[in-house]
Write a structure and sequence with these properties.
Layout (H helix, E strand, L loop, with lengths): L7 E5 L5 E6 H4 L6 E10 L5 E5 L11 E2 L2 E4 L6 H13 L7 E9 L4 E10 L13 E5 L1 H7 L7 H9 L5
Parallel strand pairs: 3-8
Antiparallel strand pairs: 1-2, 3-4, 3-6, 4-5, 4-9, 7-8
């Protein structure tokens, strides 16, 4: 599924209240329009974390390993609805219990996002969508730490694991 620059996102204030709407293209063109996204970190019972590899066609951070699930909240959608939709679309799982961790503002040169972060433990089958993701697998904490700062992961993921203290 290629990026759709015309897809509409809510524009929000720092508390998540909707103040307007803008297209994906407008939100990603350096305008710094604050728009909401969801992240889910999927751990298995061994403490490994599932990461997705972003496809080469993505407009932001292509070919990098990233959060288990990450996606934009669509206009008219709640945080919880977006989380369930993105999890289903990207890794095909249901029957999990998301635990809210925190929300924060992430800013890069191209965009500014209000990120709602969740985690879950899941040992069932994960079916990554081959159109949405290039790859996906579980990583040990040691493996992740060994590759930090080597441009293996998205800067957002690297910052988030520190910010939300994902690993002890």
């Amino acid at each position: 599924m290629k990026n759709n620059d015309e897809e509409m996102f809510p524009v929000v204030d720092e508390e998540g209240n909707i103040t307007g709407a803008a297209s994906r293209g407008e939100c990603h063109n350096g305008s710094k329009l604050l728009h909401p996204v969801v992240h889910l970190h999927v751990f298995n019972s061994k403490g490994e974390i599932y990461l997705q590899k972003r496809p080469e066609w993505k407009d932001i951070q292509p070919d990098k390993w990233d959060t288990s699930v990450g996606g934009h909240i669509d206009l008219g959608e709640s945080v919880e609805q977006a989380l369930r939709r993105e999890v289903q679309e990207e890794i095909g799982i249901t029957g999990y219990t998301p635990e809210f961790i925190t929300s924060y503002i992430f800013q890069s040169e191209r965009e500014k996002e209000l990120v709602f972060v969740y985690k879950t433990t899941y040992d069932g089958q994960i079916l990554p969508d081959k159109e949405e993701l290039a790859d996906g697998r579980f990583w040990t904490v040691e493996e992740i730490k060994k590759n930090l700062g080597k441009e293996v992961y998205t800067p957002n993921f690297e910052g988030e694991i520190v910010r939300v203290k994902l690993f002890n």
